[in-house]
Amino acid sequence: MTIPSSRFIFGMVFFGCCFLMAVALFMEHIMHLEPCPLCILQRIMVITTAITAVIAAIHHPRELGIKIYGGLIIASAATGGGVSIRQLWLQSLPDDEVPACGASLDYMLEVFPLDEVLSIVLTGDGSCAEVLWTFLGISIPGWTLVGFIGLITIGIFQIIRPLRHA
To answer: I need a surface site. Which of 43, 46, 137, 144 has the fewest CB within 10 A?
Structure first.
């Protein structure tokens, strides 16, 4: 079996991220599920991973570059996965331990400095703890975590893959 080229794999990562964003936008605009601040951070990490992958596919680097881009994909996907885990933890809290809902992300960005907004958002609030939709018993951040784990796996493969010698 022939291993696909790194360019092809980076392209597939890009299209996979586009698929994840299409699903997120479908859920927001068609299903009317409003994203919470942690959901928005997860989207940012999917977009960051997509941008890294498309740059890698266009650049078509040699061995060291493939490993660097693979590492960047791992870093962005792991960050997004961490945010997903945080949201899953909030969703698992008993009702009496769920934090109160806070201000909207737009309002916080207008009023607070960015580092304070990130701190508040990562703490999470009641809107992040709501389970609005499930599929096979898994909520949206759970499925997003599955996507991030897949992206991390591909990034690891890009780092350890055997390279074809021309």
So the answer is: 137
